[in-house]
Amino acid sequence: MATNRTNSKATNKPGGKSGKRNAAAERRAKIEEARRKERARDRRNRILTIAACMVVLAATVGGGWWLWASTDGDDPATPPAGEASEIEGVQTWDELGRNHVEGQVDYPMNPPAGGDHAQAWMNCDADVYETEIANENAVHSLEHGAVWVTYNDAAAEADIATLSERVSATSYTLMSPKPDQESPIVLTAWGNQLALDTADDPRVETFFNTFVQGAQTPEPGAACTGGLTE
Predict the structure, then answer these.
(1) What are phi and psi of 37, to 5 degrees?
(2) Pairing mode, if any, of strands 185-189 and 125-128?
(3) Per-domain residue ranges for the chain?
(4) 27-47, pLDDT tens digit by residue?
(5) Does the domain spanning 91-211 belong to CATH 1.10.4030?
(6) Where are the alpha helices (DSSP H) in 13-115?
(7) Residue 211 and residue 189: Cα distance in Å, rounded?
(8) Among residues 7, 178, 184, 206, which one has the fewest Cβ atoms lying within 10 Å of its Cβ?
(9) pTM above the 0.70 mark?
(10) In 55-191, where do the E strands start and end?
(11) 3-class SS at 150?
(12) Cβ neighbours of residue 204 under 8 Å, at least 6 residues apart?
């Protein structure tokens, strides 16, 4: 009788082999459930990523088509070649040479608005020259982001004084007489030029604000000192 009671207690003791098997099965089930949720989350993330990429691609393609359509040459809103849309009357030139050369250069516009030029630049740190300067040195100043103000004998003395005062107060500008130009006053930056009759034209302010060290500058930040002074 004593022996039978001992065996019965051993058989019903908690934590036996059967209990251990059940605990292990539960752990495996929990691990599998966690892995299943992780796989589902990964699938959702991949789907969201693909969808976002498709939206970006569609926007890029659509934007490129709109840009092509809006810049097509047949669009009447497209400004004619050779004229800037930001400032009325500004003439523009592209693909201007930038080689350093010796001697005189035959420029297609007067005053020149860019092209091959001399190795030395004219000082353009608010410099006002009383006599005519060489085109080739002035063009080098334009390459550095300067605005060049020129005038001929038709310009009024008061306008010359007004422009001289403005240039004298503005870095990256220079001014000189240009007797053979057609308009009384001309403002020139690299690839851009505006002909004027008077200095009180409101476009003077806009031209200076736009082109003094403006986006057109081939060599932004290049010096306007250390060049020629006469």
Answers:
(1) -65, -40
(2) unpaired
(3) 2-70, 91-211
(4) 666 556 656 655 666 666 666
(5) no
(6) 17-70
(7) 6
(8) 7
(9) no
(10) 91-92, 125-128, 147-151, 173-177, 185-189
(11) strand
(12) 163, 166, 187, 196
